[in-house]
Each structure stands twice: as structure tokens, then as C-alpha cells.
Structure to design on (501 residues):
């Protein structure tokens, strides 16, 4: 059928019955895809022949598994059939024959008392002569099912909800079975012959036209996520640190963090070293000497790392591997302020910016990525506060549940990896790392001894990938990025989730 044929069929139906009460039922009856019907409807509406009212319809459809079970029978029925045909079967053989279906079906078949375990032979035997596979029957007649049955099928992931906008279609005042075909454009011929005066023109369809895409700049998804995170942290009272130094000295990136010079992270395999300039110039010498002393001999109750610290190693220039280098610089400034004024002001700081690692690129690893980092420096704070702040922050950006795992960092003790429960993926993912900065790190900076600094660092890309539903972070941030996808992406912010008490 052509479009015009379909339009005539729709008009004939409306002419006879007065209306189409439910376009989805109509399309099904005609054997058309509903989208095809919508095309016909829009065309008739443009001609002014009909009017329509949208109606949202919620329904259910079979999942891939559901589809399979509706043909082969439910897992428990498949298990029963197999065991019945064999007389008896060991659970191991059941799994070999039916795979996942065998595993799922075995439990349900036992619960239904269709099969039972023979304790003596450790095999499964039929416990009844025949069964009625109500699951299969239900899957074949979703339309008439009661809510509890639908819920049960959904829970077993055999069906999934669908929603469709169907239409009620009625005649308009201009409805006419023999209306001249409306034309979309005026032609030179129509003007010459004067036929334009009696022609019927299609009206403009402003509702359905998406219009030309406006060119120009677009916000990058990652930029949107960064802005949102920045807003959340500002609301929580954090100040932003200055992050413009991508090229950093090993000193600020590692040594100031009490990371020993033999540490594997300082290897060229993990860190990008700069060739020109290859050494950093301006390092505060007093502080440098305190750091040297801490590495070599210790202090503040520590025995240090006990090796000959090399100033040349510390001066090597690198691309910073974490924004903890930024935190170190900021903390050093706080220490210097304290030395000058004798007053220590508690502070909450954060940063969001780029870091670099010499990584093999894959779906979840990039050589450059972004970190959100933060610290709180105050008296009488510890791990409990750190957990509290992280829970608060993550709840505001969509992770209501957090778990912490003990970890190791050269500069924090104790240290905790942070895992968040992703509400739509329904699984735990590692989101960051955190801890309490060690005295060996903050004492040489001049931070008073009774001040503790709790801190954390989080990778942004993996999050953003989850939020924007992209499978590989390379699609989001690399030369493989799909620029069109960023253009099409709506300006959407992170969802806020209620915090459970
Ligand atoms: N620097 C750590 C990282 O890159 C994160 C971190 C920051 C851990 C602050 C503890 C404290 O993974």
C-alpha cells in the first residue's frame, strides 16, 4: 500500500465508524506498525481532515528470555520434561544439558513439587505425572493478566514494561471523502493557469517539525558533569583550588606527599616525564629540606623511609598524575599562613581538573582524565567525618549507598577505597579513594600538629559514562568521541537521590 492508499483506508474507516477510538488497536488490526499509522495520521492532520488526541498506554512486552520461555516452556517446565524423559538426572548433568535454564529451573521445579531430590542416589526424579506450565501460558496471554502475575514475571525478568502514545482520531469540520488532494507547494504552472486559487493547500505542521539544527558550540557532557559536581561542592561549602599547573615537578606530585622515590608509580611506565624543561626551578628550599629530612630520617613520631633522598629526582618534571599535587600546594600555603599569623583557619577545598597516566588505553582507561579532589583541614576530625562528607556528597550526585574498603596510599593512613551502588546498573562500582593525610606529609608543610586533614580523589569519566550511558569512556573523551552525540545530548544534570537515614 502507498501512503495515499493508507490514508484512504483510514478515512473510509472514520467515515463509517465516526472515529478511531484507539490507534494502537487499529494499527494492530490492519497489520501496520504503529509508527506507520502515526505517519498517516500526521499527513491527514496536515490536510485538516482529522484531529487527534494522544493517550499514553502502558503495557508489557516479553524480554528475550520471556520470548524463549513462551516457546520452549518455563525453565522449571523444561527441567521437569527433561527429568521425566530420562527417569532421573544428577543436578550436574541437568546443568550440562540445559545450562543457565537448568540452574534457574531446578529450584523452581523443586519448590513446585514437580521434581524431588532422591537422597540415596543424589539424583532428581519426577514427583508428579504431569504439570501445568502456567508461566508459559501467562507469557502467551500478557494482555489479560492480573497485577500479581505480571509482577512475578517482571521479577523473573521475563517481561518488561513498555509505553506507547496511541491516538484517538476524529473527523474535523473539513472532513470530506472526496476532498481534492492537498498540495504542499505552489508551482509556476499553478500560477500561470490560475489553478492555485481553488487548490487546497496543506497547512504547516508546526507541532512535528524539528527545524534546522542551530550550529555553533555545544556543552560537552563531561563539562556538564564537572559543572554539576562543582555546584554541589560549593553548596557544601568547599572553595575551589587553583588547578592550572598540568606540568608539575615530581616534588609536588610525589615527594611532598611522602611518596618514596623508589615507589613504582614514579616509574616511566606509569608517569609521563617531560624532556624540556626536564627539571623544575622554583621549589621552596626550606620546605624542600624538611621533606628531605622526613623521607630520610622521619619526624613527628615517624622513622621515615630511610634512604638517600635525591633532589635531582624531585626536580624531574612530569605531567601531574593526580590532583593531590594541587592539594599539597594548597596545604603548604595554609601551613605558611599559620607560620606567619599563628592562627590556623579550618578550610574545605576541592578541585576538578585533568591528570595524566601512562596507561594502556581501553574501555575504562584513558591516559588523561579528570579527578575531583577535596580535603578538609580542621581540628578534631577523622575517618568518621570523612565517611560522613563522602556520603553526603555522593548522595547529592546520585549514589545513595556507599561502601568503604581498607586500602593503602603512601600519603594517607588509614586509607579507604570508595564504592558506590549505582541505582540503575544495580551494582557496586569503585568510585574513588580517600584517607587521612599522614603526619609525615603535613607536618613538614607547617600544618599544626593537632590539625587533621581528611581527603579524597574521584575519577570523573567513569561516572559521566554511566550518566550518559556510553559504553566506552573513549566515546566521551578522546579522539574517538562522537561530536554529534554531544550536540544531541540534552542539558541534563545529575539526579539527586534521597539520603537514607
Ligand atoms: N590521589 C589518589 C588517586 O589518585 C586519590 C586520593 C586523594 C586518595 C586524596 C587519598 C586522598 O587515586
Amino acid at each position: 500500500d502507498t501512503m495515499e492508499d493508507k490514508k484512504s483506508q483510514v478515512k473510509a474507516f472514520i467515515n463509517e465508524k465516526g472515529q478511531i477510538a484507539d490507534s494502537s488497536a487499529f494499527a494492530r488490526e490492519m497489520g501496520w506498525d504503529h509508527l506507520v499509522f502515526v505517519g498517516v495520521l500526521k499527513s491527514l492532520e496536515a490536510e485538516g481532515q482529522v484531529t487527534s488526541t494522544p493517550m499514553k498506554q502502558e503495557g508489557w512486552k516479553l524480554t528475550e528470555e520471556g520470548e524463549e520461555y513462551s516457546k520452549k516452556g518455563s525453565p522449571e517446565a523444561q527441567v521437569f520434561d527433561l527429568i521425566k524423559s530420562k527417569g532421573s538426572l544428577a543436578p550436574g548433568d541437568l546443568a550440562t544439558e540445559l545450562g543457565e535454564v537448568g540452574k534457574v529451573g531446578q529450584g523452581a521445579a523443586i519448590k513446585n513439587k514437580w521434581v524431588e531430590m532422591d537422597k540415596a542416589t543424589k539424583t532428581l526424579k519426577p514427583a508428579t505425572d504431569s504439570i501445568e506450565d502456567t508461566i508459559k501460558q501467562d507469557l502467551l496471554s500478557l494482555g489479560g493478566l492480573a497485577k500479581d502475575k505480571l509482577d512475578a514475571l517482571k521479577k523473573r525478568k521475563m517481561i518488561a514494561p513498555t509505553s506507547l502514545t496511541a491516538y484517538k482520531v476524529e473527523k474535523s469540520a473539513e472532513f470530506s471523502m472526496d476532498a481534492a488532494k492537498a498540495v504542499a507547494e505552489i508551482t509556476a504552472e499553478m500560477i500561470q493557469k490560475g489553478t492555485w486559487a481553488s487548490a487546497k493547500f496543506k497547512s504547516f505542521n508546526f507541532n512535528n517539525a524539528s527545524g534546522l539544527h542551530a550550529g555553533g558550540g555545544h556543552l560537552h557532557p563531561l563539562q556538564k558533569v564537572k559543572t554539576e559536581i562543582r555546584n554541589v561542592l560549593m553548596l557544601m561549602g568547599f572553595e575551589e583550588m587553583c588547578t592550572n599547573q598540568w606540568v608539575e615537578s615530581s616534588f609536588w606530585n610525589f615527594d611532598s606527599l611522602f611518596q618514596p622515590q623508589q615507589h613504582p608509580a614514579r616509574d616511566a611506565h606509569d608517569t609521563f616525564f617531560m624532556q624540556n624543561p626536564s627539571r623544575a626551578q622554583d621549589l621552596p628550599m626550606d620546605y624542600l629540606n624538611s621533606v628531605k629530612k622526613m623521607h630520610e630520617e622521619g619526624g613527628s613520631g615517624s622513622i621515615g623511609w630511610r634512604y638517600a633522598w635525591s633532589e635531582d629526582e624531585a626536580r624531574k618534571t612530569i605531567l601531574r598524575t593526580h590532583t593531590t599535587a594541587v592539594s599539597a600546594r594548597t596545604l603548604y600555603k595554609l601551613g605558611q599562613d599559620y607560620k606567619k599569623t599563628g592562627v590556623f583557619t579550618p578550610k574545605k577545598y576541592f578541585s576538578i581538573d585533568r591528570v595524566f597516566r601512562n596507561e594502556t588505553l581501553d574501555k575504562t582507561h584513558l591516559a588523561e582524565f579528570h579527578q575531583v579532589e577535596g580535603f578538609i583541614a580542621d581540628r578534631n576530625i577523622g575517618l568518621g567525618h570523612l565517611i560522613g562528607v563522602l556520603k553526603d556528597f555522593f548522595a547529592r550526585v546520585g549514589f545513595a549507598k556507599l561502601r568503604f574498603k581498607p586500602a593503602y596510599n603512601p600519603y594517607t593512613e588509614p586509607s579507604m577505597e570508595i564504592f558506590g551502588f549505582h541505582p540503575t546498573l544495580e551494582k557496586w562500582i569503585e568510585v574513588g579513594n580517600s584517607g587521612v593525610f599522614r603526619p609525615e606529609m603535613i607536618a613538614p608543610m607547617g600544618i599544626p600538629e593537632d590539625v587533621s586533614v581528611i581527603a579524597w580523589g574521584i575519577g570523573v569519566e567513569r561516572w559521566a559514562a554511566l550518566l550518559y550511558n556510553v559504553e566506552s569512556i573513549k566515546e566521551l573523551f578522546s579522539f574517538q568521541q562522537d561530536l554529534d552525540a554531544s550536540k544531541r545530548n540534552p542539558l541534563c544534570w545529575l539526579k539527586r537521590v534521597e539520603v537514607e537515614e
User: Anything to note?
Assistant: The pocket of phenylalanine is lined by residues 322, 324, 373, 409, 412, 433-435, 455-457 (CB under 6 Å).
